[in-house]
Structure formats: C-alpha cells, structure tokens
User: What shape does this take?
Amino acid sequence: MNTKNMQAIWKITEDLRGTEQLEDALMKGLDTIAETILCEEGSMWLVSAEDGRIHAVVNVGQTDITGISIAKGQGVAGSVVEKGESVIVMDTSKDERFSSSVDEETGFKTKSLICVPLKNEHDTLGCIQLINKRDGGFFTSDDLELCENFASLIAIALEERGVSLIPQKQRTPIVSLKNVIKEYPSGDGTLRVLKGIDLDIYENEFLVVLGESGCGKSTMLNIIGGMDSLTDGTLTVDGKDFSHPTENDLTEYRRNYIGFIFQSYNLMPNLSAKENIEFIAEISKYTMPADEALSKVGLLERANNFPSQMSGGQQQRVSIARAIAKRPRLILADEPTAALDFQTGQEVLQVIEDIVKNQGTTVVMITHNVEIAKMANRVIKLKNGKVSSIRTNAHPMSAAEISW
Assistant: This one.
C-alpha cells in the first residue's frame, strides 16, 4: 500500500476510535476515501435485518441516494452483497447489471465504479461503492486495496457496536431543489454562490446543514424560504413548481407555509412575548393561540414580559413560539443557538426536538456546530456551492445527550 493510502487508513482508524456516533465516522471515512481516490461519488449501503434489502445510508457527492433501497442481487451493489466479492466495473455501459448508467432525474452518469463488500466472519453487512475517477481515468488495484481495507475497518466497527439498520419508509418530499443555481452581479461579471444544488426535504424530519462560511448555506435557506430567488434550476413545493412564484404566491407561502428562527431573535421590543406572537398570528391562516404557543416552549408565565425583561434563551424560545404559532409545514432555523451558552442552547434544542417529534413539523437548521448534527435525521454538508455529502442517522441522539 502506498504512503497516501496508508495515511488515509490511519485517519479513518483514528476517526472511528474518537467518535461516539458511528454515522459521523462513516461519513468522514467515506469522504476520506473519495478524496484519496479522487472519485466523483461514494456511497455506503447496509443490509436491514427487518426487510433483507440493502439501504443507502451515507452518500458523498451531489446525488442524494440516501434512503434508496434495493434487493440483494439487484444491480452491482446488490450483486456484491449477495456474492460477498469485490468488483471493478471499468465501463458500465457494457455491464448487464446497468439498465441505464444515467440518472434520469439528475443527469448524473456512472461511467466506472468500485464496489466492495462489508464482511465480518459470518456475514456480509453491506457494501461501499465509489463512482467515476474525477480525471476520467480508470480505477486501479491500489484503489481497490484501499477500499477493501476501509471496508474491513467499517465491518469491525459495525459488529463491535451492534449497529442495526431501521429501514426508512418511502417518503415524498415536501420541498425539492433540482440543480439550483444562484448568481449575483459582481463587478463586470457574476458571482455564482450555488452551483447546482440537489436536495429533497421530507415531512417530519430534522435536517441539519453544515458547511464553512461562504459555502452557500444561508443563500440556499433564503431560496427555500422565499426570501431570495434562484437563477436557474427548479424549486418544487408539495409537487408544484415554485421556481418563479408571483408576489402573491410568495406572500401566501411565507405567511402560511414557512416559519423562521434566526440567530438574532428579531422580536419587536415594544411588544410583550404574547403580543409578538399575536402580531404574526394575525396575518396567518392556521394559527394556534399565543398562550398555547408559549406553553409549548415553556414560557407561558413570561407572556406579558417584554424582550428586555427576558434572557437570550427566553427570547429565542419566544421566537420559536412565534414560528410554530403559524402551524407551518416547514421551519427554517439559521444558527439559532450560536449566540447562546451551552445550557441555554441545549434548552432551545430540546424545544426544536419536540417540534419535530411531537408536532410533526419539518425543521431545516443551518449550524456550524457539528455536535448538533448528531440529533438530525439527516445531515447535509455544503462545499463551494454544492452538496458534498449526505448521511442518514439511523439512531439520532437526543438534545439532552449532546454536549459542546
């Protein structure tokens, strides 16, 4: 094994040792392998004891396949799991396991791939798949050796931790972005902030979006929230094209479909907590009483207090009450705990957790705090204006369990 591959295996080993949540290490490891081999896409598939099918649980690259499942023996991944043998496919157009090498929705073309089984002493637990060398070249025996070493480490970790996969039910997205591009004028040219975002957001899920400053997180959230418009691509809401809405459509959408939670609480200082909520409720259709909204965030006794009479955490909970009072389908949260200390931030996260679990609302949260990602049903990472990786948390942690 060459030096670069040995360094990759060492890094993956350290990540596996140093994490409490295995899904996080799986994503980091797959990302490390993809960067070492320099491939376009990577995915990890696990066999479910419940239905016997193979489910995609981690994805690196722009094409979101998390949640997709196939039968053993189906396609290359299913064949590798069934036989327990690694394969390199140099040209998918000549492989009978591919009915089509082009994804009809995204246009992504699979040209070549490596697929390696995740095996323990007794069984095959799943597989790892790497797709397309970035330079258009072919996968090598060194690439295959690296993948097989990685697969051995993952199989051991899965067995040691007793990870069991709970299959996701087939879901229809409530919001869908397809090849979304956003450009702004910049000098004599344009600045492309979003460079082709593909993302589905499902009902009743907690979705966390990670990424460095300037990667496009807030721009994407603003487009989803109807506060900015896309330059190209498609935004679909409940199956309807919302790429170029009218002003009336936008007003209706923002009033009744979307709730917002910001890092700065944006409360009106001259109104009490209850009045801040009632002000928003007056312009929405399907509102809950302000007292009920305050009760859900544990602040009913503060109903008559003004923002200046409340702590930062209490003000943020009022802003959450204001968002849920509209009974929105989707809540967008932009760094809602960034200005709070740990204890107060954790209290706010417990409220958000309750919104998803007990009120059936979808929450999409932008954060720099990777610990919060451990609570999510799915974690999306943006890099340079594109989705760089997606992972599904089979066993999300509760807000009470995380720390930073």
Remarks:
- The longest helix spans residues 141-161.
